[in-house]
Amino acid sequence: MSTTDAAHNEAALGFIGFGNMAQAMARGLIESHTCSGSRITACAAHFDKLQKNAAALGVQPAQTAAEVVEASDLVILAVKPYQVAQVVESVRDALANKIVISVAAGCDFDFYETILASGTHHLSTIPNTPIAVGHGVIACENRHSLTEDEYALFTGIFGQIALIEPVDTKLLSTASSVAGCGPAFAAMFLEALSDAGVKHGLPRATAYRLASQMMLGTAALQLATGEHPGAMKDAVCSPGGTTIKGVAALEKGGFRSSIISAVDATKGE
């Protein structure tokens, strides 16, 4: 076992904020056996709700952000973006000796440089919800202040449950639109495809399984081969066959332009 492997097997994680994304991250780490719940501490605004959510995962609940920071090597800031500055203020000095990972959208390196103590090591990221089942994406800003070993610790832990994709600061919001908002768009496609199956006689549970496995398999095939999606589409479209007729119907309905417009909408364009 390497030094980095040993470190990530022993590192303690803390979540300041334990909403849907933080719980998805914790679940992914625990269910993949990357990290036990006993090594994860979390706090949230409503302690009663936190206790229930923490108990479901075996995570340690804390009353305050200060308790989380004290118990953790890596501190994940998982509150709403507008709450970040206020939350950090109460633990600013304590965070100076920790690895700080942000999952708050729109909070980049320059922002944290203004609210964290000078010299604090931090990295801004945008994860997505499939991280809960070990198939996530974490887009991260390629500008950060982590040391080489600290960054290796971060990737060693979260690389077990997500593709980690560094991008330029100016592209972080676009990466968030594609990977972070994308699960909602994909779920809509899954639902629509399943509805079509039901319309033509498939039981709904069967339609969902077929559509979900098809999406999983198609994505896995592209990642494994690096093949252009257009070539993958062409490989299924026999001349005069049923698939090309379906593709033509999608094009007639503005399928591609609708997806692009959806991403544009997330960016306010």
Structure description:
By secondary structure, the chain is an alpha/beta fold. It has two domains: 166 residues, 3-Layer(aba) Sandwich (Rossmann fold); 85 residues, ProC C-terminal domain-like (ProC C-terminal domain-like fold). 55% of the residues lie in helices and 14% in strands. The protein contains 13 helices and eight strands. Strands 3-2-1-4-5-6-7-8 form an eight-stranded mixed beta sheet, sandwiched between helices. α4 packs across α5 and α9 packs across α10. The radius of gyration is 21 Å and the shape is elongated. The termini are far apart. The N terminus is likely disordered.
What descriptive keywords fit this protein?
Rossmann fold; 2 domains; alpha/beta; eight-stranded mixed beta sheet; elongated; 269 residues; 8 strands; ProC C-terminal domain-like fold
**Roughly what fraction of the amino acids lie in strands?**
5-15%
Sequence of strands across the biggest β-sheet: 3-2-1-4-5-6-7-8
Q: What is the CATH-assigned architecture of the largest domain?
A: 3-Layer(aba) Sandwich
Low-confidence residue ranges: 1-6
Helix and strand composition category:
alpha/beta
**Number of E-state strands:** 8
How many H/I helical runs? 13
Overall pLDDT confidence = 94
One letter per element, helices H and strands E, the order comes to HEHEHEHEHEHEEHEHHHHHH
Remind me, CATH topology of the largest domain?
A: Rossmann fold
- Shape descriptor reads elongated
Query: For the CA atoms, what is the radius of gyration?
Result: 21 Å
Largest sheet: 8 strands, mixed
The CATH homology group name of the largest domain:
NAD(P)-binding Rossmann-like Domain
Domain unit count: 2
CATH class of the largest domain: Alpha Beta
